[in-house]
């Protein structure tokens, strides 16, 4: 007997299974079908509610696509079922009932016909779906639905371990999708987002060690008529299923798609979608099942599909690196002050750009650029030593015993200060009025809306940042107190599964965040390398994988965004920036630049994911973000006065702070490109026998 109770069962069923999953198909009183999904061991997971459904503008009752018969094909690659489907004729079904005399719909024929093909491969944990439908008439429809998956329906219900809709949602336990935890209306609603906002074309819900996902081809032409615009598959996600007001989780695909971000969440099209005779409606999708949580589901999708080819770099790497170096030697330099940003006149200081030492080792040493940068490097180092001596109030001989002891004393003082912040259980708390005060964003948010984080609360990044410092301090001083403090923090965070707390200066503390995941990955790997605990290695791999749901692993035809990343799934200050719409690249660049500087090669550590290609992808994307005033595709946000220096070309070769996934425009701050340069150096070093990293 079926588990799903919201269907009139005819008594006919059949089963497909392999060593991974089982699929039970059932026939309604009106035709095949719906499909129920199980693990191989028999755990019921959910239901594919129908084989398609159409809702007309002029008829209140939706019409399912159903089949009277099916064809079965068995071969060595698996089993395929082909269902010749037709839309239900509602008036025909009312014949002979009490409704026949007073409800008269003008539709007497099947309005849509076609095939739905289900394939269960022999050796894969997925059910492949192919929908090939055609309209038979001129129609105005509110929607045509394809795969419509209800996880937990008439089973574990709306319970879940977690759920991920990449680029949009990362939920845990009882949290609602489209909730106001990290957004305020109208941005909170995102159950049918603009397709460009979806980072990876897959949605996953997990429950007690099993993850179920729905994936699709986001660039597929789902439907188009003549020279009108084409429609891509429109994803719909609701956890719990507040769309149907049911005790389950919804993952589905439909048309029409959302054309602009001010018309999102329209699951009933108004104006309706026009269909014409023989107009095709098509979807290709997969339902997949894996052991683990939702991040394991997303990682499995990447393993099966492969990391996409990175976009071609805007310039060859060596040329791009020289371009950045030249900018630092000219526009980003002031004699007598040092390096800095033209956007911030008071930022110039004798600080060396992160890439400079490696660049000087690898660059052509008889070039004018090399000589100029080498001179500027020497000036900065001398100026820094002089400032340090003035600050210390004395002149120490470099390398002397007194100088070494002074450094160790200063490091020890810093480490002991860090430990005063640590709680007994190992966590480091959030201190918005004290050491975490960077901007007044959360002060404004607290006064006008509500707090973005509470003092004394904690999150992953609150503990990972001091842990990174404690590990380094232990390595430099051998003070066991710092090792013990780091271990307490690492062990406290072992049970965490969602990266939170990065961008704490302007975003809700517990919102999902890429920066927190990257910091945690580096911290746990450094701890594994320093302390030898295998648990830390496993957690390092988990956390570096946690940046994947923030990464755009596809792009639409007309908006280059492959390998762009979201910083977090929230809004800053509740209202002032929408990080589901906008990309930010500096955070992911910083994580991989930090990994390189720490001698961490994720491609060697986690061989199941192609991290080399990933680093190429995010770096090539960043080259795309670099500012060229002649293109006129960047606008400042909160520093409008910089338009003039932008037009003069003084910000050229910086890169933009944000990219709008819907409009394709760049904006925000102009960020100095040193992290791009570090990633370029890492890629050049790993792609050649010459090692420039020391």
TrEMBL record:
GO terms for biological process: carbohydrate metabolic process. InterPro entries: 6-hairpin_glycosidase_sf (IPR008928). It comes from the Bacteria. This is Uncharacterized protein.
């Amino acid at each position: 007997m079926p588990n799903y109770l919201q269907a009139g069962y005819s008594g006919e069923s059949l089963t497909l299974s392999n060593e991974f999953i089982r699929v039970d198909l059932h026939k309604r009183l009106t035709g095949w079908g719906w499909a129920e999904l199980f693990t191989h061991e028999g755990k019921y997971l959910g239901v594919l509610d129908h084989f398609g459904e159409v809702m007309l503008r002029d008829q209140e009752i939706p019409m399912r696509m159903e089949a009277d018969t099916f064809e079965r094909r068995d071969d060595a690659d698996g089993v395929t079922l082909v269902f010749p489907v037709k839309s239900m004729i509602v008036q025909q079904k009312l014949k002979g009932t009490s409704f026949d005399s007073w409800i008269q719909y003008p539709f007497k024929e099947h309005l849509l016909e076609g095939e739905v093909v289900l394939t269960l491969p022999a050796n894969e944990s997925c059910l492949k779906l192919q929908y090939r439908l055609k309209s038979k008439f001129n129609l105005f429809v509110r929607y045509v639905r394809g795969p419509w998956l209800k996880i937990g329906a008439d089973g574990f219900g709306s319970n879940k371990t977690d759920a991920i809709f990449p680029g949009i949602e990362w939920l845990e336990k009882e949290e609602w999708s489209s909730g106001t935890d990290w957004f305020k209306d109208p941005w909170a609603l995102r159950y049918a987002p603009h397709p460009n906002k979806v980072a990876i074309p897959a949605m996953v819900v997990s429950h007690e060690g099993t993850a179920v996902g729905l994936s699709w081809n986001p660039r597929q032409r789902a439907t188009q008529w003549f020279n009108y615009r084409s429609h891509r598959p429109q994803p719909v996600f609701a956890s719990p299923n507040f769309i149907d007001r049911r005790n389950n989780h919804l993952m589905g695909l439909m048309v029409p798609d959302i054309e602009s971000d001010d018309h999102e969440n329209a699951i009933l099209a108004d104006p309706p979608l026009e269909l014409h005779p023989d107009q095709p409606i098509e979807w290709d999708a997969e339902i997949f099942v894996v052991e683990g949580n939702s991040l394991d589901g997303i990682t499995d999708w990447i393993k099966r599909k492969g990391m996409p080819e990175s976009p071609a770099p805007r310039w060859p790497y060596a040329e791009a690196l020289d371009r950045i170096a030249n900018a630092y030697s000219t526009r980003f330099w002031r004699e007598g002050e040092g390096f800095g940003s033209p956007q911030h006149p008071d930022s110039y200081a004798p600080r060396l750009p992160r890439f400079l030492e490696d660049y000087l080792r690898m660059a052509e040493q008889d070039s004018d650029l090399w000589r100029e940068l080498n001179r500027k490097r020497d000036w900065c180092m001398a100026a820094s030593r002089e400032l340090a001596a003035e600050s210390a109030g004395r002149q120490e001989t470099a390398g002397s015993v007194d100088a070494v002891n002074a450094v160790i004393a200063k490091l020890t003082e810093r480490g002991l200060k860090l430990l005063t912040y640590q709680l007994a259980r190992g966590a480091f708390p959030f201190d918005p009025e004290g050491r975490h005060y960077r901007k007044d964003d959360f002060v404004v948010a607290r006064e006008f809306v509500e707090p973005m984080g509470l003092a004394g609360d904690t999150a992953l990044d609150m503990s990972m940042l001091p842990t990174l410092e404690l590990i380094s301090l232990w390595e430099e001083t051998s003070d066991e107190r710092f090792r013990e403090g780091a271990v307490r923090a690492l062990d406290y965070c072992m049970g965490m599964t969602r990266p939170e707390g990065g961008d704490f200066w302007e975003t809700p503390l517990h919102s999902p965040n890429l920066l927190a995941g990257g910091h945690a990955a580096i911290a746990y790997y450094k701890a594994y390398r320093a302390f030898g605990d295998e648990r830390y290695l496993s957690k390092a791999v988990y956390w570096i994988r946690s940046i994947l749901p923030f990464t755009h692993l596809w792009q639409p035809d007309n908006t280059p965004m492959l390998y762009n990343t979201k910083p977090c799934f929230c809004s800053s200050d509740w209202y002032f920036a929408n990080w589901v719409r906008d990309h930010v690249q500096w955070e992911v660049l910083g994580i991989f630049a930090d990994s390189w500087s720490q001698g961490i090669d994720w491609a060697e550590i986690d061989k199941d994911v192609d991290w080399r290609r990933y680093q190429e992808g995010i770096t090539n994307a960043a080259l795309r973000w670099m500012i060229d005033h002649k293109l006129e595709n960047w606008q400042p946000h909160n520093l409008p006065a910089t338009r003039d220096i932008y037009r003069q070309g003084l910000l050229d070769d910086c890169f933009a702070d944000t990219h709008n996934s819907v409009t394709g425009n760049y904006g925000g701050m102009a960020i100095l490109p040193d992290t791009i340069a570090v990633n370029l150096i890492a890629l050049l070093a790993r792609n050649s026998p010459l090692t420039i990293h020391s």
